[in-house]
Amino acid sequence: MLKLNFSLEDVKFDEQGLLPAIIQDITTGKVLMLGYMNQEALMKTIETGKTWFWSRSRKRLWNKGETSGNYHEVISLTLDCDNDTLLVKVKPHGPTCHTGNYTCFYKEKEIPPDPSIITEVYNVIIERKKTMPEGSYVAKKIKEGIDRILKKITEEAGEFIIASKNQNEKEIVYELADLVFHSLLVLGYFDIPIEKLYEELKSRRK
Q1: Which residues contact 94 (CB under 8 A, 6 or more apart)?
Q2: Which CATH number fits domain 117-203: 2.40.37.10, 3.90.180.10, 1.10.287.1080, 3.20.20.80?
Q3: pLDDT at 27
Q4: What is the C-alpha separation between 36 and 114, in angstroms, rounded?
Q5: What number is the average pLDDT over the span 132-138?
Q6: Higher pLDDT, residue 113 or 199
Q7: pLDDT, greater one: 198 or 36
Q8: How far apart are CA 51 and CA 73, in angstroms?
Q9: Percentage of the residues of the chain whose pLDDT score is greater than 70
Q10: pLDDT (tens digit, 9 = 90+) per residue, 138-161?
């Protein structure tokens, strides 16, 4: 059963007995869908750790993934300031939208990549370190040890410097991506949370 940071008595359902629930990917920060929960759906979500909703069209409870198998692993539940909207942070297992898209809000115009990709890459590194799958570059580097990883960082730093000296934008971006990736690999190797990096950067904004 999920631990709550609010009292169930504080939840304000609307006149139809429903509560809007915004579903957000905890890794990428992207909104996946908007659903509605009645009291029973909310309780099932808390008890099972998976998202349950009330279908306004079919007039029944439904569990995300009950037919597709693409379910939401619930990480946390948070009420808004008025206690009448729920933010549900999840780890999605498969696409959320019935169309097969990652999110139900896939029709937006193309926008620049979300900075949260840094967190996503870091989480993949941690996952690869735990599972050590065959053929994984991360697993290979973890096995080689920290000295080999640091040697790789030295190489990537040198290539980044050369690209910068050549004033080649494409190469600068490419080499910086390599340097950032291998730097994140060091954090993962030592199990240093990515939040520590964000906290340090934030502390410098003075």
Answers
A1: 65, 68, 69, 70, 71
A2: 1.10.287.1080
A3: 84
A4: 27
A5: 93
A6: 199
A7: 36
A8: 7
A9: 96
A10: 999 999 999 999 999 999 999 999
What are the φ and ψ backbone dihedral angles of 81, each rounded to 5 degrees?
A: -65, -25
Q: What is the pLDDT of residues 170-197, one digit of tens each?
A: 999 999 999 999 999 999 999 999 999 9
The number of beta carbons lying within 10 Å of the beta carbon of residue 10 is 10
**Count, residues in the chain:** 206
Q: Which amino acid is at 130?
A: K
Strand partners, 58: none
Measure the CA–CA gap between 189 and 129, rounded to whole angstroms.
Answer: 8
Nearest-angstrom CA–CA distance, 106 and 33: 10
Q: Give the fold, CATH level 3, of 8-92.
A: Ubiquitin-like (UB roll) (3.10.20)
The pLDDT confidence band at residue 205, using thresholds 50, 70 and 90, is confident
Q: Where are the alpha helices (DSSP H) in 49-145?
A: 117-131, 137-144
Q: Which two tokens stand for residue 6?
A: 């609010």
Domain ranges (residues) in the chain: 8-92, 117-203
CA separation for the pair 5, 123 (Å, rounded): 25
- Listing DSSP states for 13-62 in one string gives --TTS-EEEEEEETTT--EEEEEEE-HHHHHHHHHHSB-EEEETTTTEEE
